[in-house]
Design a protein that fits this description.
heterodimer, A: mainly beta, Rossmann fold, Neuraminidase, 2 domains, four-stranded antiparallel sheet, 31 strands, B: alpha+beta, 60s Ribosomal Protein L30, Chain: A, four-stranded mixed sheet, two-stranded antiparallel sheet
Chain lengths: ~450, ~160
């Protein structure tokens, strides 16, 4: 049971106060909101119990650090230094002395309480508008103690949603390819981690080359390319059971898989006799359908969130460009017309944009365009980067970047990076090993 | 135009030619590139004496050059003489492209080689293809010469 934890959610109070604080996430945020994340208060007995179970000295403080890091990484918030806090966590949680918090320039305040109850972890937290001296939100929930980091992520999601008006992306995971060894013979494994880089687990052993893992909509299945027995084929992996199976019975390489938005189909490329076309396979009745039929390379398909359209990569014009078609393969239209060549189109979960990799004059860019190809915007330029994947709220992109090697061919590395849709807040995403091909899950607690 | 001027012009042209040819020969010997197709032998192995195992491609291309066709004809002749052997043709791409497209491109390159071998009398049942895209470079450098060595199709004995 990796994903299906039980969370019991209780709204303590109806939200009455009109929000005075609002965070605008549509533009680059150059003045992040000053927010105080008070350590969650914890009584002595609970502290001892958690220490026994989790070897964790102060769970209340640890959870608040998870929240604080999340808020900071988002680029929209500026969590204030805890040393400046004047009020004790337990008293602040009951009723903050707003003047004290205003004094350190906090505009919002998060307080909370952790208890050990009936072998469970019970958390309540409140979000306060400091200047208006009002409570904005109060929520409590119960879960198993080992879930404590997720508690921090869920709190962040609730706060983010309350202050920005949009769903968060913190209680999520990233699946990616872990890389080790020499550039000429990389060992690659499937790996999964929390969005903030914690709780890394390896899903394959590295005996065969694996590439391009992608979650299904419920985050329980992954589709990816494996070179098992030197036959590159699209596979399906159940994360909970570890059971793997090959998708379909194709007489050649299948690759570039993704799930349909309803999770019922896998869309992928099948290469035969030097030609790659796009196919779907229905996971229930195993019916295979050919979607494109063209002597060029057709690959990297990605569905629109409503399942009605597919964007994909094709070199039918002579070079790699981005195309959109109806999901049955009709009405194929080229949408990329800028300078350079384009690859890896991926439809935004909001439906309005397509993210891509662009190659031009020896540089690689991650960018976005509208689904008709207009409004192209390049977010970041580098020596090599590709394969953007959207956060579930469509506000952040994660991708991977490779470094140039030196004259001796040494110094190669591959790392995950994220950037906001605004083009601001570019960050290295921490991974235990080198990493590539990231794919962002949807929200786990929905 | 007097003779002196003509002589001077001839001298200039000769000089220019010398400089240019010097550049050209230098480029050829250090870069081992024709256009951007690798023509050197650094990474090449041999299936048998005089039978190179690999051919090289231009960026984004799967067209066989004159030299590649020559190499593949040698492979075909040797394969026809060794009819008990089967082969895997590995298609590869350089690192300067997106992963999924490169997988397709590698497959296209391997098949270009396979098709040519079949044209020269090798039974298609003896030849299988696999694409590694950009996953297995032979040269880890980040420069045009290294990339040219990695854009390749390699014939490997399978039994």
């Amino acid at each position: 049971m990796l994903f299906r934890y039980i969370f019991i959610l209780i709204i303590l109070l109806p939200i009455k106060a009109i929000a005075l604080i609002e965070v605008d996430i549509t533009r680059g945020n150059l003045s992040p909101l000053p927010i105080a994340v008070s350590p969650l208060s914890i009584d002595k007995k609970s502290k001892e119990s958690f220490n026994k179970i989790l070897k964790n000295k102060d769970l209340g403080s640890e959870i608040s650090i998870v929240v604080e890091n999340n808020l900071k990484q988002s680029g929209l918030f500026n969590p204030l230094n805890k040393n400046a806090f004047l009020q004790e966590p337990d008293i602040a949680h009951l009723k903050p002395r707003f003047e004290d918090w205003a004094l350190i320039k906090a505009q919002a305040l998060i307080t909370g309480k952790v208890t050990y109850f009936d072998e469970k972890l019970r958390v309540e937290f409140r979000l306060w508008d400091v200047l208006a001296a009002k409570e904005m939100m109060a929520i409590a929930f119960t879960t198993v103690p080992t879930n404590w980091r997720r508690v921090g992520h869920i709190i962040t999601d609730k706060v983010y949603e309350r202050l920005t008006g949009e769903k968060g992306y913190f209680d999520t995971r990233i699946i990616y390819v872990s890389e080790e060894g020499k550039k000429t013979n990389r060992i690659k494994k499937l790996a999964i981690m929390d969005q903030d880089g914690f709780n890394t687990k390896y899903l394959t052993l590295g005996n065969e080359l694996v590439l391009t893992p992608r979650f299904n909509p419920t985050n329980q299945m992954v589709t990816y390319l494996s070179y098992f027995r030197n036959l590159p084929r699209v596979y399906l992996l159940d994360i909970e059971t570890g059971i793997q199976e090959v998708v379909g019975d194709f007489p050649g390489m299948t690759f570039a898989p993704r799930f349909s938005p309803d999770g019922k189909k896998i869309i992928m490329s099948f290469a035969m006799d030097g030609n790659s076309d796009i196919y779907t396979m229905d996971l229930e009745n195993r019916v295979v359908e050919k979607i494109t039929n063209h002597p060029s390379i057709d690959t990297s398909p990605s569905y629109s969130p409503n399942g009605k359209y597919i964007c994909f990569n094709s070199d039918r014009s002579g070079y790699q460009q981005i195309y959109v078609m109806k999901s049955n393969g009709s009405n194929v239209k080229r949408i990329s017309f800028g300078k350079g060549i384009y690859g890896t189109p991926v439809w935004s979960p909001r439906g309005d944009l397509i993210a891509f990799t662009k190659m031009h004059k020896g540089k690689f860019y991650i960018g976005v365009m509208r689904t008709d190809g207009s409004g192209e915007r390049l977010l970041t330029e580098n020596y090599y980067q590709e394969a953007p994947s959207w956060s579930p709220n469509g506000r952040v992109l994660i991708f991977y970047r490779e470094t140039k090697t030196d004259e001796m061919g040494e110094g190669f590395s591959a790392k995950l990076w994220s950037i906001d849709l605004t083009g601001y807040n570019e960050r290295l995403v921490d991974t235990e090993t080198d990493a590539s091909d990231p794919s962002w899950s949807s929200l786990l607690s929905n | 135009m007097n003779l002196g001027k003509i002589l001077k012009n001839v001298l200039l042209v000769t000089l220019a030619c010398l400089v240019l040819s010097a550049c050209a020969t230098q480029k050829k010997s250090t870069n081992q590139l024709q256009g951007d197709v690798y023509t050197g032998t650094d990474t090449v192995e041999y299936l048998a004496s005089g039978v190179p195992d690999r051919v090289f491609f231009a960026t984004n291309e799967s067209i066989l050059t004159t030299k590649s066709r020559d190499t593949l004809r040698k492979q075909a002749a040797w394969m026809r003489k060794n009819s008990d052997l089967t082969f895997v043709i590995e298609g590869h791409a350089d690192e300067r492209g997106t992963r999924e497209y490169n997988l397709a491109l590698g497959e296209r390159r391997a098949n270009a080689a396979k098709d040519y071998l079949m044209t020269y009398g090798v039974d298609g049942n003896r030849l299988s293809v696999i694409s590694y895209g950009k996953e297995r470079p032979v040269d880890s450098g980040s420069n045009p010469l290294s990339w040219s060595k990695n854009r390749r199709s390699v014939t490997v004995k399978a039994n």
